[in-house]
Amino acid sequence: MLRKDRSVRAGLIRDRVGDIRRLEAKIARVEEMIEAKLPASGTTLTELVGIGPVLAAKILGEVGDPSRLRSKAAFAMWSGTAPLEASSGMTKRHRLNRGGNRQLNYALCVMALARLRTAETQAYMARQKAEGKSSREVMRNLKRHLANIVYRRLVADFKRFGQAA
Asked: Based on the domain organization, do 107 and 141 belong to the same domain?
């Protein structure tokens, strides 16, 4: 239908579609390059559920040398997944940390969303909600848990790869 239309609007749409196709091809080439170069880093992040080659490369690029972070708590604070206390009077609660490295926080969020499809994570969500926690609180807890997993994996990979090099 668009092919037969010779209006200015149709021409602009055809140009946009062509641009989108070129960009998709370029993105695919870059993803292939990342996937080809990732094994040289010695990372095992891609073995974790929810982390593919692009997300692993993003995490590695943001973190760099994990030994500069003194603990998993420091990593959580830096990634913006450490909860901040927001208590008032007798009410004890925590809120989402909006600080930290937003790119790293995004990577952990994507990982959490991917894990929401697994039975184990769904069971975790159900248990937490049964305890009276909101969906936001559960997601915050899940991201913090995943930050701990990613930190442990980064440190282990760094030690293993550092000894092999």
From this structure: yes
